[in-house]
Amino acid sequence: MIKVWLQNNLLHRLNNSQVKLLNNRYAHAIIASTMAIVPLSIVRGLVITASVLCETAGFNHAAQWFIQLQIGFLALAPLVMNIYVAVHWAVRNRLSQIYCIALSISTLMIFRRIMDDNAQFFLDISIPMALASGIIGNVLQEIVSKKLLKIRKWKDNNNVTIVSFFATLMIIALFSSIIKLAAESGLHHAMNFFSQLSLYFYPTNFLNGISYVLLRSVPWFFGLHGYYLFMDIDVAFTAAAKLNINDWYSGRGALNILSPVFYDMWCNSGGTGNTLSLVICILMQKNSPHRRLLTIAGPMALFNINEPLIFGFPIVLNPVMIIPFVLTPLVSYIVAYGATYFSFIPRITAIVSWSTPGPLKVWLASGESSAAVLLYLALVALGVVIYYPFVKSTLKQKSAVNNDMDLLTGEMKIIQPTDFEMVPNYSHIVEENSYIEAQRQIEKLQSSGQFILYFQPQLRLSDKKIVALEVLIRHQSDSGKITPPTFLKYYERTGLMPEVDFWVMENALDYVRENMSETESMTLSINISPQTLVDYRLLHIVNTVLAKPLPAGWNLEFEITESQKVQEPVRVAEVMGKLRSLGIKIALDDFGSGYSTLHYLTRYPLDKIKLDRSMVLGLSKPDGFNFLLQAVKLCMVIQCEILIEGVETEQELELVQKAGIELCQGFLFYRPLPGTTACELLNEQQKQAMPERHIPREVEAIA
To answer: Are residue 124 and residue 172 in the same domain, yes or no?
Structure first.
């Protein structure tokens, strides 16, 4: 029982750690860049396979041409990752892609020159350096932009971008010069330290060989190929292996156990992580949704290309599946090393390309040894045994997740799992799949139509006058179909709600200025998510959109959704205070339906509270009215306006008025309306309120 509890508790903690990773913007940038080079890696693998086939057929010139081509792909990968980090950062933060790319590449060039004055930039950069320079450059520009916005109010956002771009470059160049001039000796010692550290991973003996296995497999958790990360080790290792085999053939020495081919044979069946075993496990699961992935990943696994499987299953950012991904090649290494050491199988006598299919590679490299081929098949079967429980648990979780898990928060409804077989196995694969699915749905929305604005009136019950309009976003397909905002969950899941809120804010204010300027004394209410409240761009964008005044008597109000959990309450309170100082009212939406209700009332500066429709629905219950009455009294304590939403019947309206509520919103009065209809309503109300301003022309002529 203790063992079962520990297994569940461990997996639960691993899943929670994955949720945090999936919502980390630095992890997003790294994964986006690694996914960008997946096609490059696949093409490189196919080029190497073509080279092997040409060499086998005797076309040595063509084989050499393909080898040179794959070297070019290998050299290009870090630069592509550097650029894609910049592109991802620009799209995520609504910045200029050109400036971000230029900054990222410039930072990379500066960093590379620090390391070596004679380096050939485009042919001599590493992936860690490419990723670090891309992230450091853009994060530093983000910090500089924030500081500039605090120093002065910029009327044009382009000014901030341009100034921050050059300021960031100057800071990076200055800092690099200091390192180069004042700390050159220290840098030299640091480089020597890392060089010595890398030697520990150089597989000269059994223990160092284990480190080498981990070096090749663990970085895949972040989507990074271990071979790309420490290419220098592999180049030297390959050269040493060729020299050792040549010496053995000439009788000048014994064969080493370890070589690159040794790892390719025993630790990379189907690719890093011995993922050929994972392919077989997926095939064994008849109802697995991942079987369709094998139409692409399966054939490539035969040539030891596994990027589609690693990103598609996924292994990346999956703290549960990374366990068998590392454990399987590690166990295979120990078994194969022991079998070779005790001469159960022969040592490797030929260099065979890593893309050669497994059994054939073992047969050729071992001098046509049947025992080696049998060991290869046994290790594949052992890998299946290791992968199987993890793949099986993933399938169980997939089938049960809809009832037991919140896809947006990653929180289980069952707080403490008690039975390994009964409880769904946590959300590791579902969390990643939900994120990918959200991205896919967003792309589908953007390509199948456009977003439009609707307005729902809010009324003052004493005279039934419209006093405010709540802005609502809708999606209109190319065929004209209007979709309610159910799609917002995809933007929440991917952290893109600020982009939606900023779009609504900019377009709603422009629409009011252009079409509702004749109406006076009105409030425009815009929904703002907690994600947007902590976005550093919010105050700048608010200042920008309010640079042009609203129509006479109009106020801007932000509705903060109480049903979403606030992650940074101190920052939120600070931002709310700054918004109010700009004359913006703060309303708490969905009061009574979400998180920490009393905490919201006591911690944040509020002007209005919107009671959730659940309180209206509760009026049908025996104590429903008393509950509503107490809620109203509670809101009055903090001296806020009170609005209730969701009123749909006359009976509900009567009880709401009896509770002392003055502001109301619901289908009994108006449903969400297109902009043109809302304008007509406001114009009609304006005419009724000021009849003296609409004297007929005939009367004016008599006068």
So the answer is: yes
Residues 285 and 405 in one domain: yes
Contact criterion met (CB below 8 Å) for 585 and 557: yes
Joined together, the tokens standing for residue 167 give 């300021």
Q: pLDDT class for 177, splitting at 50, 70, 90?
A: confident
Residues 183 and 223 in one domain: no
Q: How many CA atoms lie within 13 A of 472 on its CB side?
A: 22
* pLDDT tens, residue by residue, 73-119: 777 878 888 888 888 777 766 677 788 888 888 888 888 777 666 55
Residues 194 and 210 in one domain: no
Q: Can you say how many angstroms the Cα of residue 495 is from the centroid of all Cα atoms in its chain?
A: 7
- Of 501, 588, 575, the closest CA to residue 545 belongs to 501
The sign of the dihedral angle between the CA atoms of 236, 237, 238, 239 is: positive
Q: Residue 23: inside a domain, yes or no?
A: no
DSSP string, 260-311: HHHHHHHT-TTSTTTHHHHHHHHHH-TT-GGGGGHHHHHHHHHTT--HHHHH
How many other CB atoms are there within 10 angstroms of residue 44's CB atom? 21
123: which strand partners? Answer: none
| SS3 assignment, position 560 | strand
pTM (2 decimals)? Answer: 0.53
* Separation between Cα atoms, residue 623 and residue 625, nearest integer Å: 6
> Rg for the chain (alpha carbons), in Å?
32
Q: How far apart are CA 263 and CA 266, in angstroms?
A: 5
Q: Which residues span the domain enclosing 305?
A: 201-426
Measured CA to CA in angstroms, residue 145 lies from 134, 168, 606 at distances of 17, 9, 29
8 Å CB contact between 347 and 256: yes
Query: Can you tell me the distance from the alpha carbon of 509 to that of 522, in angstroms, rounded to the nearest whole number?
Result: 13
Q: How open is the CA angle 303-208-52, to the nearest 5 degrees? A: 20
